[in-house]
Amino acid sequence: MTTVRSSPSTPGPAPSARLVDGIGMAAFVLITGFSLLLLVAPSLIVIAVSFEPRAYISFPPSGFSLKWYQSVFENRQLMDSVQVSLTVSFWVALLCLALGVPAAFASVRGTFPAKSGLNAFLLAPQMMPGMVIGIATLFFGAYVAFRASNTMLILALSVFCLPFVIRITMARLADLDPRLDEASANLGAGKIETFVRVTLPQLGPALLAAAAFTFIEAFDNVTVALFTSDVRGRPLPVELYYLVQNDSTPAIAAISSIEIGLSFLVMLVLARTVGLERLGSPSIKPDKT
Amino acid sequence: MSDYAAHRQSGLPVFVRRVLHGGGFWPALPAIVFLVIFLVLPMVTLLAFGFVTIERGRIVGETLTLQHLQSALQDTLIWRLTWRSFYVAVISTVLSLILAYPVAYLFSQTKGIWRMLILVAVISPLLTSALVRAYAWLVILGGRRGLLNQTLLNLGLIDQPLRLLNTDWAVIIGMTQIHLPFMFLPLLAVLSGRDRRLEEASRNLGAGQVRTFFSVVVPMSIPAIFAGLALVFAVSYTNFIVPQLLGGGSYATLAVQVYEQTVVVLDWTRGAVLATILLSSCFVFVYLIVAAGSRFSRWTERTS
Amino acid sequence: MSHILLEGIVKSYGSARILNNCTLSVAKGEVMTLLGPSGCGKTTLLRTLAGFVTPEQGQIVVGGTEISHLAPNRRSVGYVFQNYALFPHLTVADNVAYGLKVRRRPASEITERVGHALELVALEGLGGRYPAQLSGGQQQRVAIARVLVLEPEVLLLDEPFNALDAKLRLTMQVELRKLIDRVGITSIFVTHDQSEAMMLSDKVAVMRAGQIEQVATPLDIYDKPVNDYVAGFIGRANVLAVDVRGGIVVPAPQVMTTRGDGPARLIVRPENLAFSDAQTAWPGKVFFASAQGPTIEYEIDTGQMQPLRLVVQRKAGQYPLPNGTAVHVGVVDPAGCIVIGSAAGV
Fold first, then answer.
1. What is the DSSP string of C270-297?
2. Would you say residue C337 has pLDDT above 90?
3. Residues A264 and B117: beta-carbon distance below 8 Å
4. What is the pLDDT of residues A117-126, one digit of tens each?
5. For residues A160 and A100, is the Cβ–Cβ distance under 8 A?
6. Cα A203 to the chain's mean position, in Å?
7. Chain A, window 115-174: residues with a beta carbon less than 8 angstroms from a chain B beta carbon
8. Cis peptide preceding C322, ω within 30 of 0
9. Closest CA of chain A from B189, distance in Å
């Protein structure tokens, strides 16, 4: 893990620069170490705490037990909420792919006027905080007499997640060589056939990544869900939200550990498909408006 | 025989074909319709609810009124909450930059397994629920049995447990950690792809490492820095989960107040007004950050 | 009768006119090369023929059928892309089979024809590989097999040797020309490399700024360029300001012309100049000399804008004249010179 690079053989740094460099290096190491600790430690602590055999949290745990995991799996209400969340996330991912992939296509390959306007509109939801999307959907639902329900949750979460799918797909599409489409046309294929035979197979990994990302976003989301989910069949994040507010049993640590494990699984999918680094390149930034 | 004979041209007139083709616009239509119905109309409703009077879930009165907005803007509590939302977000955003930048830089300098590990460390929070991460901070900071207090007491550094939870700093620390990936991702892309020869040129011209870092590396990444700042500010400013969980029951920010009014008090008019204030003030701040960013990165523009 | 006929093709992007009234006809079985510097519109003209570009005006006729309004996938025109545009997710065999599959040919026929096509380009046995596992030369052959398997009327190749290194390029040029002769297909190449154009084609069309300047056989273009641009693009040429007086060029009276009296320009190839004693030649000084083994190249300063270039055969042990030597330069073969109008007008 070296950051020091061999100094050039030509004119060396001024003597005072040596001291500054030393201090700078020390500050760099200190901040980096602290930052990495801050990123990793909380998750590790939660995982450690989840093995606590007693009824309250302590660190390091006083022993090793899986009883809180057992209690999670035996908790009917929690398991129901997991079921709800899985169903909701599945539909969100599906809906986002169905809407987002064609939209990304238009937005990358289209030649119509006002294309940049379309892009801004399609990516607009990422400017909206989840809470605002949740409340707006709730109010609109009330206005047209549509109650908070899993259907409403799916729709609101899809609005929230659509930009992820569009962005990942757009990034991959922009990478594809448009001459492959021309080659396909030259060999006699029509537009749809070209899409199915040439574009889609190359888009595959990106779509898988988009689906995984959307799924986990929908599964984890609490800001939208608090406002739009069904009062009876609550999704997991909402259930967890109330649990965390009122209680601090290691059972929550156990659920959290399971979620952390799940996120690692998704990360593996992303690493294998689009590559983790690429998540940053279509940089998640608000448009200049 | 040539295979090309198998095809015949379609008989449609040119203009019909041109409309059907639409410059490749049509695939975007479903998404547009979807967003209009489930984003634009709800947003209009949200805005509108701030200007009508609602009682027991029904709109009372026919006319729009500025009364609710006025009373909210005259309420000093709202101003205090907005100020708190603002400074908490600002401190957290600046901290994110200070913490994320060296890690992104380290990432750009390393190879192989370490690079992968840093990436996992930074991205994994992005894929874990904010709730789980907030809970981790509850465990660490929470009360007498909180991990940090326990450790400090055991080490004899303090006699009394510190009040860590339910403070501004608990909220700021929690937010910073949760939003760190948003700052990291744009930086990662820019720092990894940067031209190392510029630094070699700087060293060759006699600058030390620190000087090179601040005169060459940092300025080159200004666009990414401001993209990250804008994003982290926006998510911090509108976050209500972290202030609620780590700030405690009596701690409120503007975002928390929006939640309380909408879900707990069920005063939808008030909720709508506050949400409108939250969203519009957030846009103003983000715009200012983006504007500052483009001022500092004029060298990226192609023509003057 | 011409097999391919492009007539009055006009194409603009915004205010920039990329193709300005291009007319070109290619006979059946002929190999034509579009030659010109980058940005002269040669690739656009080729893409127009394939249907990737829709011209504002003009007609495209292939094999007697007007195809201007046809979509790219309905044209009997095979196109080999500059970097081949092989489908990276398909094997070599699947790349070649692509067009046949699109046409819903029976599987047995596809296998047979793909086999033949791969044999034609000497890639038997590599059908199972992916494009990324092939060398540049092999990729090019796949790209060619992929279109030839469909037996198109016309073969279009956009700078097909650009992606190959210099050594491989020569072999592939010869191989490709032999292949085209075997198949007997009407072909159009695009290139900016004049030696490639000379080697490959039956006819060369020299383009400049969206216009076709001259269409002729490579040797005719070399010997009888219509203007100084064409002369400079194919081989090297000296363009000299001269005077015509009574059908005789001054100061090179061996050269005769039917042109009327007045200023004109004389185009002379460097190998058609030699040192002479005669006073009826250009006096000058050696300005730069470089020995190349079999020849010596001189630049002679004659007081004109451009130095004169001449190439002389070198004998063993002979060294170039030192710089500054006063010399006279004269024309060797008057028939190899061309007199054109002065720069101001024709």
1. GGGEEE---SSSEEEEEEEEEE-SSEEE
2. no
3. no
4. 888 899 888 8
5. no
6. 19
7. 118, 121-122, 124-125, 127-129, 131-133, 135-140, 142-143, 155-156, 158-159, 162, 166
8. no
9. 5
Q: What angle do CA A74, A75, A77 make, to 5 degrees?
A: 145
In this structure, what are the phi and psi dihedrals at residue C92, rounded to the nearest 5 degrees? -55, -50
Distances (CA, A) of A80 to A75, A233, B6, B212, C66: 9, 8, 58, 57, 67
Tell me the pLDDT tens digit for each residue of B36-76. 999 999 999 998 888 887 766 667 766 778 888 888 888 88
Question: Are C21 and C8 within 8 A, CB to CB?
Answer: yes
CA distance C245 to C230: 26
Average pLDDT over residues C256-276: 83
Q: Cβ–Cβ of C71/A183 closer than 8 Å?
A: no
User: How many contacts, defined by CB atoms under 8 Å, are there between B and C?
Assistant: 28
| Three-state secondary structure call for residue C262 | strand
Interface of A with C (CB under 8 A): 177, 179-180, 182-190, 193, 197-198, 201-202
pTM to 2 decimals?
0.78
Q: At A98, is the pLDDT very low, low, confident or very high (cuts 50, 70, 90)?
A: very high
Q: Using an 8 Å Cβ cutoff, are A44 and B125 in contact?
A: no
What is the C-alpha to C-alpha distance for residues A215 and A221, in angstroms, rounded to an integer?
10
The percent of residues above 90 in pLDDT, for chain B, comes to 31
Residues of A in Cβ contact (< 8 Å) with B97: none
Q: Which residue has the tokens 């050594």?
A: C167
Main-chain dihedrals φ then ψ at residue C205, nearest 5 degrees? -110, 115
- Helices within chain C (DSSP H only): 42-50, 92-102, 107-120, 136-148, 166-183, 194-200, 218-223, 228-233
Query: Contacts of residue C85 in chain A, CB cutoff 8 Å?
Result: 177, 179-180, 182-183
**Minimum Cα–Cα distance from B147: chain A residue:** A59
Tell me which of A2, A19, A31, A35 to substitute to probe the interface with B (most B C-beta atoms closer than 10 Å): A35
Determine the 3-state secondary structure of C300 from DSSP. Answer: strand
Report CB contact under 8 Å: B4, C100: no
Q: What is the DSSP-derived secondary structure letter of residue B214?
A: I
Its ipTM equals 0.85
Distance separating alpha carbons of residues B74 and A33, to the nearest angstrom = 46
The listed range with the strongest mean pLDDT (A125-129, B143-147, B168-172, C319-323) is B168-172
Contact C215, C48 (CB under 8 A): no
Closest CA to B281 of B256, B263, B255: B255
Cβ neighbour number for residue B30 with a 10 Å cutoff: 14
Tens-digit pLDDT profile for residues A137-183: 999 988 888 888 889 999 999 999 999 899 889 988 888 888 999 99
Q: How many CB atoms lie within 10 A of CB A100?
A: 30
pLDDT digits (tens, 9 = 90+) for C142-198: 999 999 998 898 999 999 888 788 788 888 888 889 989 988 899 999 998 888 888
| pLDDT at res. C174 | 87
* Of residues C170 and A224, more confidently modeled: A224
Peptide bond into A286 cis (omega under 30): no
Of B2, B8, B14, the CB nearest to C76: B2
**SS3 for C298?**
strand
The string of pLDDT tens digits covering residues B215-246 is 888 888 888 999 999 999 999 999 999 999 88
Please give the distance of CA C122 from its chain centroid, rounded to a whole number: 27
Strand partners, C26: C4
Q: Dihedrals φ, ψ of C277, to 5°? A: -95, -20
Per the CB < 8 Å rule, is C151 touching B1? yes
Q: Give the whole-angstrom CA distance, residue A185 versus residue A191.
A: 8
Which residues in chain C have their CB less than 8 angstroms from residue B4's CB?
74-76, 150, 152-153
